[in-house]
Queue: 4 jobs
Job 1
Amino acid sequence: MTFTRREAPGGSVLSGVRSFTGTQRALLGSGFLVNLISFSVYPYLAILLRDRMSLSMGQVGIVLGLATFVQFAGGVPGAALAERIGFQRCLLISMILQTLGSLGFVVGGAWPAVTIAALFLRSAATALYSPSVRGYTVHGASETERPRLVAASYATGNVGVALGPVVGSLFIHEPGGMFVAATVLHALMMVGHVFLPRESRDEHEVVEPLRRALRGLAVLPFAVTALTLYLHMHFYQYLSSYAEDRIPTVFYGAAMMGYSLVLAVLQPLIADRVEQMRYTKAMALGFGGLAVGMIAFTGGNEVAFAVGILAIGAGNSVLLLKNVLEALNRSKRSPAVVFSHQRLAEGVGAFLSGLVGGGLYYQFETAGQLPGFWVVVAAQCVLIPPALLLVYRRFRRPQRERTGS
């Protein structure tokens, strides 16, 4: 891909936003609000389930783990449904489910069992919403428009992720008020999605049956995305525990909000460059940033945490965006299906991180050598990506030889 003229990064972003259609802007706003609502509730779900249901934290973990699995793995059948009935209808169904889920959290104050049903309802709604909104956002876009739209979609979502916990903290002593507000917002969004235009359908587009939902999977982006999330979730899941008694809670919260804002600001600025970048270079920058960040955490003070989070934010800004763009370029399936494949890869990576990372963290914690945990994770950031590429190329070579013979 080439450009006819050079644009300053800021000008590129502004011109890109101005070129978006009204529908695309509405979808970006929808993604922001959905994440804002979700992440105003998400940090407090463990406490909510424990208090309402009198569950142990182990039981809470199982419930949340199953809900997360539904949210990630459900994207594949969700995308298959979007191929059949269209993005606008899927988004409307998702908003109906989101509204019912939020209402269930309200009712769960009186009937606690409804809380779990509401949690899984919201997870199913997210599984349907995520591939549909991203698929609709890039629907009909040219190859030159697609990187900016993908970056803008992730950027607005990350702003919602950053601001959600801040909004939720305002209701920390009155969760009922938070759920009422979420119900009202979801109901208003449901009405708004009624007025979204139905997308035009390509008469030549082949709609695969559900049993072939994984057909056309872009193997390398899927594997790299799973690895990215596997390594990233070590940072996301265990840094809060490591931060206890090392840095102030307020500083940690602000730093994590800053991480989401780094992605929100940086990804639109670098979208065009990332699109042109070789995948191997993007992997080197992304996993390199993760490695630097993990090593920085061993310092155990405010400066070390800030440097580490900034390095990971910069690396993920490149890698997460490139993974999606590479999958879209390599697969012949519809964007909604490609996004669901990437969503499934994220779920696989997150699951593996919980499976491996928890035990690893426990071993270093009991040994009183927690900084060593981050050294081991950093080593994986350096060693596993080249090994993954080597394995991929080794398996691809015989296939090419058979094709050429």
Job 2
Amino acid sequence: MVLHTAPCEAAPVSCTDDTGTVITLEAPARRIIALYGAFNEILVEMGQSGRIVARTDADEAIPALAGLPAIGTHMRPNPELVAGLAPDLILQMEGRREAATSVDALRALGIPVAVFRVASFGDLFSVLHRMGTLTGAEQDAAALEARWTARLDTVAGAIARQPHDTGTADGKDHTQHPPRVVFEVRYPNLLAAGADSIVNDIITRAGGVNAVQQPGRVVRLNEEELLRMAPDAYVYQYGPMNPTPVAPDQRPHFTALDAIRDGRVLKVDEHAFSRPGPRSVEAVEQLARFLHPAAFDTNTTTARN
């Protein structure tokens, strides 16, 4: 049984968001609207779903939010609908210009808006702590971080203890040289996850290395660049950014890659890999099992001891 802390309602709370804005509330937030779905998932995991008063159009799949009113998209929320729900805190992910415009409009209505940036698990833990502060649920945030950290440590330990053999996705010994991975964000007009993305950290923690080391969250690649990279494994996502991806082995020129020709390909859920939140830990576990199958039980998701 998990017991969740009751926030102290009297004391003011304050934190600095990732735009340098100081967010100060007279008391822990009781009416929250998160414009980025993964922040809703974090609140749910913290046991604070009762404080969420609305959702975006894209969050209908989160069971705890299904009955809540929708206030538009995360880039273009309806200011009138938002204001009518009288939130005392709005959470947003730093992103494109449209997101910044909506933040300015909501702040102009006098609503506190915290904007966060997440490009690594360190960033994710920092956001978790600040959400704990703003809700007065610091203990719940700390407990959730401990659970995530334990799972990540289990993966790291399993990879470190794996035999010095060829029990990896490409049949090579990657004990000293981690497998090089390309993560496809979108195709055609190939976009790959860059060095400044949560995916980069997911690959690293799963015992691989991102073959795309250019800065940025996403990097445009042509097929010649991809062939020169010669990755050991190819991962491609499906979801809003890549809704109907053609299997890589059905694409012109892609079969020139050993990873494609030899079947070292993994199709993954965009919401787990490209949306920083609770499922990012699940993404590490899934990718680690793919890259280092010998380190994990074949019939379970647990690491070998």
Job 3
Amino acid sequence: MAELRDVDLNLLLLFQHLLEDRNLSAVARRMDLSQPAVSNALRRLRTAFGDELFVRTAQGMLPTPRAQRLAGPVSEALGLLSQALQDQDVFDAATSNRRFRVAMTDVGEIHFMPRLMEVCVQKAPQVRIDSVRVLGPDLPREMESGRVDLAIGAFDDMGAGTLQRMLFRQGYATLFRQAHPTAHAGMGIKAFRAERHLIVSRAAPYGQVNQSMERAGVDLAEHFSVPHFSAVPYIVSATDLLATVPEKLAASAAAPFGLRFMTPPLKVPALQTNLYWQRRVDRDGGNQWLRALIVNTFAVGS
């Protein structure tokens, strides 16, 4: 009985060509081999299958009954392998119904999802994008497993198998309602410290603005706080609280909520937002398409 380990791909190709050409010289030319090399390969093939397989006659190399039984399966196997080798991961956005899962924070959802959904409906009407909240050490694991396709944000420790591309850098802005009695653009640090503040998300990377406020003398423990950015415009529009948030959030929330914003009198490092994906899906057609869509829609300089 032939074992798979005894038969390499070239032997199966030789078998297929002999079935078609019935001539060792023709097969040698077709495979760009010498005739002795083809004869040697045929001996190995006969040994592996324990059968002559092809017998020399006046009509050429004719297949034995065993070779005739092998003809169909070998031809099918080689065809499937050839198809797999030639296959390219072609993604047709216009017809695909693929569903993508993209990890981002709530402030990321506010900035990215409205425009991303709008563009997706235009270019890929059947594609769906799910925003998922997976943060911390769980995010690299979820991406490695394939349960998350992309991540957008400012995440650390994403692992060696993760690739990334910067989308943009942004500073921070301080939001306050239009009717606020004392807040105004250009206010100094002393006046800023005297205001009541809404503290948002102490988690990285947004915790850096809170650290800057503490260094400036703002006692965070004396102020209100919320864990997420999504509630900030609602709270600020109904109170005299100030909230220092990423500037893109401030710009998008100002008009709908009747707010104003200013550059805070703080030294806060710029916040860099990146697009992350796994190396193993770097050449996946669908993943490439969504990455390009995000980059073309949101990246600075695109």
Job 4
Amino acid sequence: MKSPIALQQDLQNGAINARLQSLCGLDGTELEEKRQRLLHLIQAYSEKFGTDGEVSLFSSPGRTEMGGNHTDHQHGCVLAGPVNLDMMACAGANGTMIAVIHSAGYPAIEVDLSVLTPQEDELGSSAALVRGIASRLHDMGYQIGGFNACVDSTVLGGSGLSSSAAYEVLIGIIMNHLFCEDAIDAVAIAQIGQYAENKFFGKPCGLMDQLACAVGGIISIDFNDPAVPIVNKINYDLRSSGHVLCIIDSGADHADLTDEYAAVSSEMKAVAAYFGKQVLREVDEKEFWSNLAEVRKQAGDRAVLRAMHFFSDNQLALKEARALEQDDFQYFLSLVDQSGRSSAMLLQNLFCTARPQEQAVPLTIALAQHLLGGEGAVRVHGGGFAGTIQAYVPVSMKDAFRAGMEAVLGEGCCHFLGIRLEGGVVIA
């Protein structure tokens, strides 16, 4: 930790450039953009909180789900990775129990961390996440305290890149560094974030988003025991595939879909309950198919279809990981397409059932498939119902693909991203 002025000097003279390079996911051209963002954060921190005391710089990335759509909350398998869009912060302890956070583009928040129980008026807010993380750290026996922070994000809310998980990991690594001597590992940081989102923010979620933001690199995750998830790093560089990863914004708002997400989990669990189990990972797939008629009567058609998706996509996620490990990218693309079809037909998370006339995600998928003409692969991205889709686009088609998508969806809808090698980190 250093004074804001000292960190500013380090950034200006290039002393942190090598560190920033590891947070770039494409060709390194975004290094200067990240350096400028940090300089602006230090300036903002100095203006709001002064230059006395020591601060550190932090980064937490957004994530892309590459395989396993809505499998994590059923203790299944996923494939995911952090992207080169991130949340950055300049933060320092303030000697009180108040967390004061200024996030660019949002109202400042102040959270009294002497109160560590969920507050009803904070449901769905950033303050709830901060309080929840502090509460969990306290329960785990760690010291907590107040801090000042300025935050800047290129992970847009509702982008399908999991801005909430990126924020949770950011707050987790800030408190871990300022008060816990960096004693908490990336998996535990992710679990703390999930706890805050479930218990304080009020949104049921699995652990995939937080782990993908926290750990770094392409990872295969098995949640069979969610308390001790098995995380394997996949040694594969997407840049060698001849394709680029593109996240396309459908234009449909990804916010306020908690009920839709909750229904996916509850319906899958209703099928598991027929067999006396808590989640679908505990159910034998052969028994499921053997008892299909009775399960359908008890749980309903959509729940049964969503269970079918789980069994299919859980295996696809494992196959996708093996395909990348074996450098078989064409097979990987065929698996991605299979996963996309399963989400559309079985999981049914492409549009909000309350607004069936709004079909932005299916339209965006259909347009992307038309433009690719059988090349690459396309699938819904993340939680679904609105938000974004994911496409793997041949490098030779990148410009034409972007032009075709933007002609219908508007300029800036395509985000060509890289997978960065690090998750949530202390930069300096």
